[in-house]
Amino acid sequence: MNVKRYALLTLLFLLGIMTAGCAGSGSEKQTEANGSVAAAFVKGTALAVSFTDPRVAGMKGVAANNRLELFADDQSGVIAVLDKNSGEVWYSNPPERESDNLATGVNKDLLSAQLKLDFNNAFGQLSSVNSYTDSVIHKQFRFDSIPNGIKVTYQFGTDEKTADDIPSKLTKERLEELKGKVDKTGQRALMIAYQEDTDPSVYVRNESLAGIQLKRTLQAFEAAGYTDEDFRKDLEAFHLEQTKPEPRIFLASIEYTLDGDSLVVKVPASGIHYSDEYPINTVSVLGFFGAVGEESEGALFVPDGSGALIHFNNGKINYSSYEQRIYGSDLTMEGIKEDVGEEKARLPVFGMIRRDGAFLGIIEEGDSVASVNADVSGRVNGYNYIYPSFYVINKDQVSLDANGQARSLPRYQENPTKSDFTIRYAFLSGDDATYSGMAQYYQRYLIKTHGLPEQKSASDSNSGGDAPFYLQLIGSIAKNKHAVGIPYKAFEPLTTFNQAEDIVNQVQNRNIRNIKLQYSGWFNKGIDHEVPDHVSVDGAVGGSKALREFIAFARDKGLSFFPDVYIAEARTSDGFDETKAASRTLRGDPAAIYPIEPVLNKRDRSKAPSYVVSPSHMLKVVDSMLSELDGYRLEGISLQDLGSRLNTDYRTNRQIDRTESETISKEALTKIRERNLEIMASGGNAYAFPYVTDITNAPMTNSGLKIEDEEIPFYQMVVRGYIDYTGMPYNLSGFTNMNQYILKCLEYGSGVYFKWIHEPNSKVKDTDYDDLYAVNYEQWLDQAATIYGNVNEVLGNVQNRKMISHEKLSDGVFKTVYENGIYVIVNYNRSMVQADGINVEAEGYVMGGVQK
Asked: Which pTM does this prediction carry?
């Protein structure tokens, strides 16, 4: 950053602190002559008391509504919320934290903090400051009233000088000059601070200079009138590269407002200030909100996959704590942990269930740069806690080679994330204080905020009251061949459109209904097609004429047809200029995606990569694709990546951060829906919900992280009745037992899914698609009919109905209840069990209830 820009930001920083310090204080304090930021910060007046409550002793009531009361302690920054319905009090920090015998040092201090900022230094090393250690203790925070709540502004750190503010070497002449300008105390301090070098004309700074001696030395330099110009001259005298460090001073604020049954917590982006020398990496918010100790019963809810519970005090402190990025990793960030094989966090939510109440945290702003973090008591403190953190400035390492020596330097994203960070804490009590209650609340929240499509009719004419059967057919693949010893690439048809008609007829003849057909590898050179800024139907599967005939066939047969496309990923470099249209990494390279090696379950960098399409390019691709598809009169489209991947573009001077990328993805989805196309999306991140009708590869389990205790169908309880869904294809899944798959579909309310080809399995041997090892349709037809028959027998009665509750009755036994009164109990065990007074056969299920 240039000097002028730095000076401007510094001025704005100082003005921001002065404004925060003076507004409403009743007095003004000007910045002192030395320009000290700390001197500009004014604590302000004491917080006014609107009401008190003995249940929240020692705290001041500052805002209230019909459901909640908000309290604050203006000596510590702690806030509390009283839920009038339950009488439960939720504190931002544990009230008994001082008696925690496990936490020490910074971990003890963090129990009293409301914000934590992680930042990098000039070498890319990560450090942190928190609102207790670096602000509250120094009385560098203030409260201000805002509508329905309060705002707390923190200054982290001071401008206290260090040994680096004085030269590491002085000439004897300069030292004598300084001694002549100070009193005897100052002279003694200078003689302790500097020791004669082997050259008697040079004095070297004492490397152990610290504490009171450092303070006295700094005072001596100040008393002698030592200036920045003097400092520069002394460095030049010895050709030193020493620079005065920037003060490690940060500014951030947090706003608390009551909104109905919720506390809304916001960290405004405009209130986050830092120097270029110490860029902020992440902001962690309310790390111990609602935290409870070792005597408590309950669970933490995390959004891993379909959802998971971490039981309080589960003793799993030898395993890693929980941390997961919302919407998965960013493929332009080369340095982050790969999440290959790990379920994604598709929903921006988290929560806590206590004995007498629960809260659901909904990340309303900044969700695409958020992570959820959780841990149990016994590791670094005695509390069970869960909280969100947000990325502000991402970092990567750049390797340079100078004179044959490799050197690694940090490189940071050009601009900070352009988003506020907002979390809604919704409080639940009574029967709603369960994970089922949380899911119902989040569903109502999405409906209210237009985050879900309209609920489907229970008698939807397309479904006929049948559960959906999802079928993905693979059209053609690229295969390396040889002719007279010369290698070339040919396109191998696996399922032509005519063959697809044959498969559909055989499926329907087996009484499989409500078919939703996803067809991949149909255009632009096979399954790994060129970017769809043009559409050319592959001759290998029949060409344009065959596609039109199949569309007419699908309408006649009453099945939903979804031709499959990639938009956010260029699956081949053919026809794609990665230098212009690919996202850039922080290193400045086009962002490459290497295929997954299935045995090792990691990226195989020996193979040719695909590329991340820059978000700036995606809307053009979508416009071109839709224009070229107009003539086919399609009714649906399948999106492999647009609803499941969010990537940044770090291109210099044209950066698009992940929050902006989310906005662009939603614009692209809007364009598709405006063409009256139904959308089938793979993965299904929450921001895609308003636009999609179907989700494939929906999360049907959690990642199985060691710290987790239970998987739950939270995701399914949120979307069911509004969006149809299924997991991964049965014939490519980890299920080796058909009964277990049937039970999973029934428990999670999911449609059945298969992935097939018409040609023999041998057609994919020795290709890049050998993961399609068991997809020939003939070997699966009978099993598909059996599975669908069992699933539809139950779910046909609840098609387009919401799932209102789910509970574990005993190990391996679960009960799911739907809104029309129908329930199903599944038994995964290999022996019969009795549940709710009903005998359930081994690996069997029982349906009950009276339809409403």
From this structure: 0.88
